[in-house]
Amino acid sequence: MDRVQVVAHKTREQNGYFAVQVGSGWKHPSNVTRPLLGHFAEHKVSPKRDLVEFKIQDESGLLDIGKTIGASWFQEGQYVDARANSRGMGFAGGMKRHGFSGQPASHGTSLTHRAMGSAGQSQGGGSRVYPGKKMAGRMGGHQVTTQNVKVVKVDDAKGLIVLHGSIPGPHGCSVKLSDAVKKPWPSVPTHLLEAQPTTEPVRNTA
Fold first, then answer.
1. Shortest CA distance to 202 belongs to which of 104, 51, 65, 53?
2. Which terminus of the chain is less hemmed in, N or C, by CB atoms within 10 Å?
3. How are beta strands 176-179 and 79-85 bridged, if at all?
4. Model confidence pLDDT, tens digit, residues 71-112
């Protein structure tokens, strides 16, 4: 976890729902757009590389703006849902992308062993290709969620969270961790909800 801080709040009165906007990492101000620079400067938070939202039930879950969230927010033994963008694999055929069996390997098949086959009817089905038809195309590069991943160890000093199992995304990508929706929610220690001073110095964003 790289300098994770609460950046802003989303409330039902202004946005229609309750959420906490969290940023991680750091980005040079010259690589940030002016509207985002103003957003960070308004809340007195350094420019962040990634911004995500975590929806909450009510205003009691709104953490203080500028609060630093460390690895100790998660507990050993609890389950989380890991969400990230999967590795992009470029243009792929129907057999690789959707697991099609392909055409026969012999018996007169010529140069179409890995072809998709028919894409629709010529009569009775509207003489068209239905939307959402599984065909060849770009594979990967979409959001994937792995549910019920167990937290094995937490190192708050180094900001590390060790998970048991595979998680989506290539090496070096940002992974969003949240409490597992299909498991009982863990009890949050009281000291984590108390206001803490910001450990990261606020950099100049003007």
1. 65
2. C
3. antiparallel
4. 999 999 999 999 999 999 999 999 999 999 999 998 899 999
